Every structure is written in C-alpha cells, then in structure tokens.
Amino acid sequence: MKLLRLSYQDLASGLSIDYCDFFPDLNLLVGISGAGKTSILKAISNLKRITKGASVNGVKWDVEFLTNDHVRYHWLGEFEVKKARSPIKSDKDEVNSNDGENKVSIIRETLLKYQEVLIARNQEVIEFKHSKTPKLPSYLSTIELFNQEEDVFPVRQEFNKIIFNPLRFAISYSTFDKILRNYEYNEYNSLSELQSSQLRISDKLLITYEKYPDTFEIIKIKFF
To answer: How far is 188 from 183, CA to CA, in rounded Å?
Structure first.
C-alpha cells in the first residue's frame, strides 16, 4: 500500500490534519514535539481500525492510496459526534469503543476505485455500484460490510498490512559494545545474511553501522 494523500479530523477533540501529500517510496516524519507526527500515525491506525469494524466517535477522513497492484482508491467518510455520558471517561466508558450505547453511526461514506464510485452512503441509504442495499448496521464502515466483494476486499487487505512497530534507539555505548561483541551478532559475515536474519531492525542498523559503514551511509541518505 502506498498512501498518496490523507486528511483527517477528530471533531470530538478538535484535532485537525490538513491534507498531507506523501512521496511514492519513502516518507519520514520530522518535527518538534507537538508538531503532529504522532497524530498522523494515529490517524492511519484509526483508519485501519475502521476498516475492521471500529466505530470511532467524531472522526472525519479522506484518504487516497495505491494498492500493491497499483490500483488507486479514494475513501472518505464521517462518523457522528456523540457526547460522552460523563465528563470523566474511563476505559470502560470510552466513546470510541464499540460496546452497547457507545456505538456511533457513520453519516456519510464514499469509496471510489480510480474515479468510479463503488459505494455511496448517507444516513438514509447505502448504494453499492449504484444499487440500493438492504438496511445495514450504521456503525460499521462499508469496507467492513462489503469486505468479501472483489472490488472492496483489496482496501481492507491493504490496511491490514500496515504494521506499527515503534523503534527505540536510545542506547548507551556500553550496550552498543555488548551487542557487537556478542557471538550471536558477530556471526553475520555478509549483508545478505544480516538482511535475512530475524534480528530487530534497530540491531541490524547497529551492526551495519559498525561492519558496513558504506552501506549505512546509503541508508542514512535514503532517510534524510
């Protein structure tokens, strides 16, 4: 999956992300604390949750992306805003959950494949390929409702491929030396062996930095 453009608003909290255009191959989010890097990642994470049936209070989204087969999709929609029953919320009383009264309805949703409208939805009706469907749960996205349809399944499949794996690079020199002196880490005598290993990405980068500095410089240039 390659994200092309993203717009996301949380109408319940006031969070707003203007349109973000993404590069085709690699994107690096850089900025001071509070600039919105985590918010963008959280928005993408919530979209993944929505494709799997989550009901997320007050969220409005507009996303365009390419599948691995280079098929272009445009998906946009909006959940209603529902006030919490109590000003103090606990995990059990989270408006964004899918339990009982806390489910929120989608008030509009559209899915396009290339520029063709596959699904058009409002509070009254859902049309799939220009045909009205029977009454369906209002709190489930059409990606969830029609996930077995040939033209819709790739959307859910692509979002399911997204993996959130935050790396921790705060490491001391003593830990660095310990890693490099460990036989388990020194046994990789080529880049191909290191690449195919089951080591964490952060460990692979440490070993590359020490044993293959030219390659590490290429990686660094690609990121920065």
So the answer is: 9
